[in-house]
């Protein structure tokens, strides 16, 4: 689809907007609809659109598969770390009120950090799933091609 | 830190170790981390059980008070189950190393990460006091289980995994619909809260529908006859280590959720207005007979043991259909004891697969001469499965028969005895093949299973005999738990 000028220009225009919207959903999640999961999926959809237009190789040049895998684990660990921080500071697991002095900003900080972890994990896992399907497709195509040659 | 403050870490340690495990390279590192995490969890459960006996332990996450936040609520019933799951994990992981090296040679980091997730999910299901949180953990453990089963060597593993995925998702969805109906009617998801509010609205069709959805959804998950069709394939085609773990824990956890929902949330009185007793009694009896008879002529060992598992679920269903302290205690004891015997039996089957690469009945002929210790373990665990005195299996069948006699339910007594005779047949068939039949000609002589497989197997065998004699942990805790369940909300 790289040759189609309209698609390329529209995608180039849309991809940054989709990413921006994902970040908006991410960082307003604590008091408006949205949050890490939704933001992660929206963010991943921007990358998927990029891959649809420019191909998987270009997409993996932006973020290699191994990086996605590591980030997906790191997101979950960020969540766990914030939860454990509550315990370390003398509260319960996922207790945010001990993080900062002001109770309201403590809750806000806790939620945003935890949701950031969710966002990173969801975005990278969605990308990983998509990558696996695309690779499988590419393998099948290669096999078909080889059979055609025989 | 007090026991209460350590309590959530029995779930959190394996849950947090899982993503780290997925990133570790090689074979030794992921396995070591998994073992460490599960051992930590097991140590915590050993402290939790005595602390939870008198008064339930309550831990609220994020310090949000219970009806708003999620709480872990642990009494003797779920403390016993958590102890069982974590300690089975500790015994299975050392066994798993060799078996997994053979059956899942690559990408072991993600494999052990999935194992940890499955274990953490099961632990979460039993410890939580929130009906929706049960669903979340149910999905965590189920999704990782589907992936674990798909790791099996044969392509059939993919099909079995997919079949389990469909049935398991149906079950979880039914459970969720039931919980949704409960939430609409009562406005709460906390189990203790639900227990207080359900009686006020019990006379409505919405609550009756919720009960039906939850029972059928969990029936799928616990492989109650005739909803068991996913189980034999899943157990047969999964990697041996996964089969051992699932057979010992997964269906038992679904039984626990069923008990908790029926007795604590809906309450005994409401359950008796529904056809709960008839359904579980009838399906339990048919399940025992049908699955035991099916087990007799299965072409391979793991499939035979899987059908035997369906039969054992039948015993548990029969026990909990008796709706008495003795009946529920018998059910809980059998949950515990069955994990010990089926774990040991599947380990023996796994050791055979490790050595000869197959578990077809025809290949087992004469195997007792080349693998004497493995076959001895199989026969000893088989004796426990049959219910020979001095074994754990005898204790659970004895408790079940006593509970049935107390209610004058002679049909149940007869079925339990017939079921035991059928177990003699299917266990005996393997023993006969291994001890009496001539061994087929092989290119290379078969050697005994390595010590790494034998030791954990014999730990479980020893446990089978220990809990056949010392019933303080099993029968006493189970009776205490059954009293809490029958007594309604604690």
Helix content of chain B: over 70%
Low-confidence stretches of chain B: none
Measured as a percent range, the helix fraction of chain A is over 70%
- Encode the helix/strand succession of chain A as letters: HHHHH
Mean pLDDT over the residues of chain B: 89
Most extensive chain-chain interface:
A-B, 19 and 15 residues
Tally the structural domains of chain A.
Answer: 1
Give the C-alpha Rg of chain A: 20 Å
- Measured between the Cα atoms of the first and last residue of chain A, the distance is 29 Å
The share of residues in extended strands of chain A comes to under 5%
User: Helix and strand string of chain B, N-terminal first?
Assistant: HHHEEHHHHHHHHHHHHHHHHHHH
Radius of gyration of chain B equals: 21 Å
Shape of chain A: elongated
Number of alpha- plus pi-helical segments of chain A? 5
Shape of chain B: globular
Quaternary organisation of the protein chains = heterodimer
The number of E-state strands of chain A comes to 0
Q: In what order do the strands lie side by side in the largest sheet of chain B? A: 1-2
What's the number of extended β-strand segments of chain B? Answer: 2
Largest sheet of chain A: none
Report what the structure shows:
The complex is a heterodimer of chains A (150) and B (490). Chain A is elongated. Chain A has one domain (5-149). In chain A, α4 runs antiparallel to α5. Chain A contains 5 helices and no strands. Chain A is mainly α and 150 residues long. Chain A is 80% helix and 0% strand. By secondary structure, chain B is an all-alpha fold. Chain B has a domain at 279-490. Chain B is 78% helix and 2% strand. In chain B, strands 1-2 form a two-stranded antiparallel ribbon. Chain B is globular and about 70 Å long. Classes of the chains: A mainly alpha (150), B mainly alpha (490).
SSE map:
The complex is a heterodimer of chains A (150) and B (490).
Chain A (H helix, E strand, L loop, with lengths): L4 H23 L8 H19 L1 H7 L2 H24 L14 H47 L1
Helix pairs in contact in A: 1-2, 2-3, 2-5, 4-5
Chain B lengths: L2 H4 L2 H15 L4 H25 L4 E4 L10 E4 L1 H28 L4 H20 L3 H20 L5 H31 L4 H7 L7 H17 L8 H8 L2 H27 L1 H6 L2 H21 L4 H21 L3 H32 L4 H4 L2 H4 L1 H15 L5 H15 L3 H27 L14 H19 L2 H15 L4
Antiparallel strand pairs in B: 1-2
Helix pairs in contact in B: 2-3, 2-5, 3-4, 3-5, 4-5, 4-11, 4-15, 4-21, 4-22, 5-6, 5-11, 6-7, 6-11, 7-9, 7-10, 8-11, 9-11, 10-11, 10-14, 11-14, 11-15, 13-14, 13-20, 14-15, 14-20, 15-18, 15-19, 15-21, 15-22, 18-20, 18-21, 19-20, 19-21
